[in-house]
């Protein structure tokens, strides 16, 4: 099956941005992949992937803060879909509530307070039949 593009389903945020946030969140929150990458650092010059030291919470916070309000609401809604609070078919409702909740608040603080943020966002995207695996970063 060919990968769907974000033109087919309008999430309100590009898959490239979501993929970047997923990668950074996993590095910051220290998921298993990031920990495995850190363990490989014992050898010295193994630089296949960026390690957790290359991304800080401040970097991720700044990236999320630079997104527009619609993109921030979409990120929150994707997290909720990934967590199972909403189904893909309830997307408009989830985005609407996320926009209301985010009005005047700091989306980065909210999102960075969620454990496994990267995994939840990835699962949220998957609920729409999309994948972040083939997305250029």
Total count of strands: 0
Order of helices and strands: HHHHHHH
Helix content: 55-70%
SS class: mainly alpha
Q: Indicate the mean pLDDT.
A: 82
Region (Disordered): 29-55
Pfam family, one: DUF3775
Biased composition (Acidic residues): 42-55
InterPro entries: DUF3775 (IPR022254)
Walk me through what this model shows.
Residues 29-55 are annotated as: Disordered. Residues 42-55 have a biased composition (Acidic residues). This is DUF3775 domain-containing protein. The chain is mainly α and 137 residues long. The protein has a domain at 15-33 and 55-128. The protein is 55% helix and 0% strand. It has helices at 15-29, 32-39, 57-66, 69-83, 91-102, 107-112, 117-126. The longest helix is centred in the first third of the chain and has 15 residues, at 15-29. It is globular and about 35 Å long. Mean pLDDT is 82; it is low at 1-7 and 31-52.
Secondary structure blueprint with pairings:
Elements: H1 15-29, H2 32-39, H3 57-66, H4 69-83, H5 91-102, H6 107-112, H7 117-126
Helix pairs in contact: 1-3, 1-7, 4-5, 4-7
Concise structural overview:
With 137 residues, the chain is an all-alpha fold.
